[in-house]
Amino acid sequence: MTNGGAALADLALPGQDGPAAGPGDGNAAAGADRGPAFLLVLTHGAGGGVAAPDLMAVRAAGLRLGGAVAMVTQPYRAAGRRAPGSAGRQDQAWAELIAAVRAQVAAGIPLIQGGRSNGARVACRTAQAVGARAVLALAFPLHPPGHPEKSRAAELAAGVPVLVVSGSRDPFGVPAAGPGIEVVVLEGETHALSRRPEAAGRAAEGWLRRLVSGAGAADEAR
To answer: In whole numbers, what is the pLDDT of the chain averaged over residues?
Structure first.
């Protein structure tokens, strides 16, 4: 499974992806010289793919900041299925995928994982088990549409910092901020976050910049 997992991840290193890094971006150039400053692993929603506009905007932000970015297609989607199956099986497969991706980059760099919708749930549930430094949750589905009583808010208590980016018109609900949970609400956006995906990218970039700067300062102090 681990070898198969590696084949499902499209890994880009800083400086390898010119258009995503942006012209003249010093952070990306510096990252290419030093090696990636962090590893950002992103995945799709239940029936979607990694080319979703919000995911691609976050990918570009990660590369601009000098990170290595892996876009992961989970095994059930690679097999052509739209439903992920049980949470336990999905989480186990995710942990194996993360191990395979981490083996492709320098040891010891911070891992930040995330995804959109169902992928955000996986990232939250597995954060501590895989040693993630933080979680980026795009369009976290707080509850099934029309059923706010079936809340999934407990999954956001990931034990690490979490950034949630949601649309104000998301029928799956908008989570509340709390200890360790930062929430950015994009006005007028739905669950797809597709009207202005660059806004999701900007929100992620500012958060990632603060997160990585803080991690670097802590490492130097040690």
So the answer is: 88
The answer, yes or no, to whether residue 65 has pLDDT greater than 60, is yes
**Rounded Cα–Cα distance for residues 203 and 58 (Å):** 9
What pLDDT score was predicted for residue 216? 54
Residue 91, phi then psi, degrees to nearest 5: -65, -40
What architecture is domain 2-221? Answer: 3-Layer(aba) Sandwich (3.40)
Amino acid letter at 126? T
Cβ contact 213:207 at 8 Å? no
What's the chain's Rg over C-alpha atoms? 16
**Ranges of each domain in the chain:** 2-221
Concatenated DSSP letters of 130-197? HT-SEEEEET---S-TT-TTS--GGGG--SS-EEEEEETT-TT--PPPBTTEEEEEETT--TT--SSH
C-alpha pair distances (Å), 219 with each of 103, 112, 206, 208: 22, 16, 20, 16
